[in-house]
Amino acid sequence: MAVPSATSNPMDSPTPPGPVIPRVDSDKKEFRLLYLEPWKEITNNNTPPEIRCTLKVSSFDGPLPHPEYYALSYVWGDPKDLISITVNDGEFKCTRSLHKALTKLAQNTDSATMILWADAICIDQTNPEERAHQVGRMMRHIYKEAQEVLAFLGDPYEGVDTAIKYLLKAAQHPECHLDPTLKPCLTVGKKKRARLSAGDQELGRNLVQLFNLPWWDRVWTVQEFVLAKEVHFFCGDRVVSAGLILKAIDNIDKHVLSCCESFASAFYERFVFLRRSSSFTSSSSSSECAGTDVSVANSTVWQAFSRMRALAGNAGKCQVNHLSPGLYRSRLSSDPRDKIYGLLGLSADGLSRHVALNYDAPVEQVFEDFTLLHIEHTGGLDLLGLLGGEKTSSSLNLPSYVPDWTLSPGNTWSMDEGWMITLVDRSLFSRSYYNASRGTSPNWRRYKPAEENLKAVTVNGFVFDTISFASKERINPWENPEDCKKWAVEVETQVNATLKNKDDAEELFLRALCGNLVAKRSEPSIVKWIKQPPDGGRGKYLPLARGFWKAVVKTGSRSKGAKYSRVDWPIQLVSRGRSFIITDNGYIGWADNRCAPGDVIAILGGGAAPFVLSPVKDSTGKLSRYRVSGDAYIQGIMQGEAMDDPPGSGNIRKFDELILI
Prior knowledge:
By secondary structure, this protein is of the alpha+beta class. The protein has helices spanning 39-42, 96-108, 119-122, 128-145, 160-172, 201-210, 220-226, 242-256, 264-267, 301-312, 324-327, 338-341, 363-378, 417-433, 481-498, 505-514, 526-529, 541-555, 565-575, and strands at residues 30-36, 52-59, 70-73, 82-87, 90-95, 114-117, 148-152, 231-235, 238-241, 272-277, 293-299, 445-447, 456-473, 518-519, 530-531, 578-583, 588-592, 600-604, 611-617, 623-634, 656-660.
């Protein structure tokens, strides 16, 4: 979902000359803190209050501990719309959005001075070397060590009070139902007759708009949230903790997946269309527009909540930090390089130490260098699992093995952060449960083909099979049951014809359908509860999958009932954005929706899953290279069976050298 907003990054928009700013020593891990004076001390008679503050140097390595401070997280806004404040007794011009944040804090501060960190003021924007060091090396520590992060979401809108009150009530009363026919019911409003419940479109609109405020669109706010000890959101006069928002969403999810499941579509899946004006200055990212009203299509409450889930699922953890560019790729930045640089603070695994911020390097070079560095550093091909389905045209000239972080993966499902979560989860599960290359390591080297403008690498791997049938992309049964039914009938017909002579044909298909995964319980935090079925799954697992599939073939809709969530969630995980495929040798599974008959299934060194490659002929007409479509699930080779030479021998097959372009 591309929602243009006024975004920027700490490396942009140098401020005009202002007060004398104390120097910081990068070798001593020094940084500046902003001491904000409260209004009650500086207001004279009826004169409009003035923002006054002082900059002082502190250090993470000093002999004395640094003072406790609050870090601000906000959207910079229009860099030309500046307001003067007083810093160190001199004039300092800051953006209107920062001025609003400082004003709110100065109003609410008691007699004590409030100690803050705000990037636009605390980093000398006129000093490129300092900016690079503070942004690339210090910001992570600054947000991590802050007493609290204060996140300013944007200007309030009519209905923000309703949205926040509803979420607070959901957090405080987990027993309240979404379904108005069940008691007690979760409602909000002063008058009994005017109370809003989950079935009211007005409430849905208010909730969606809350999570579409500018702060949620900015790539830099991700690490500012994830690294924080605690976060409070500000919107108008409302202040609410991130913990309460997350608790509310968790409580609502539990009702959606159990007692209120039949009512979920009336609440979670209803589309809400918003329009808002963007004052963003256009950049090289095609999704960011200037001065236009933009319709936010395909926004549902589920998608809105996914923006919080995407942040909360990463907060305090290291398990997905190396895939963060994929998880937050729908967020905006004024410079495409910040799709990488703005998330380096999450790379607790040390990857960030090897990435030097270089805003003079071409965007293509930054993306390609990061991909190859990521593969070398992690020893795996997880990042290639995030290539899936990029259909939108790009202005960047990238090889197929490099994700274009300026684009959201194109597919017929909604382009929200919930979809990004699915892609990242799928890569994580591949690493946890699959071992297609049997623990081998990647060996990637840059390769210069004869064509001047072509980028390529040589990789260790081999072609295993060729795709003979590829269905349409899997249809979402929640959105289009009739088309889903047609899709299911076609798949079943093709599978039956292919596997008709196999005694275990049904079992093979059902395992492929679910990726041989099962859910332990019905909760949205799927990283914790999807696993491989115990004892082969022949007890409860396969009958559940069979019942689920029969309902899809018969009606185009998924089976109702919480028990079917045990297979529904794994099916969504393995199939979303993919097509069902059959190979020349009778293997079945799922592959990226761009695949077609004639594409090949390949095992690449370091790959937890197989990959789909599209053959490309060189200028002489010989097959010599491939384009990468994405990873795949192929029943029967996910545990390294394809590595046996000959099959079943246990002898490891030697890799060939493949060229990827």
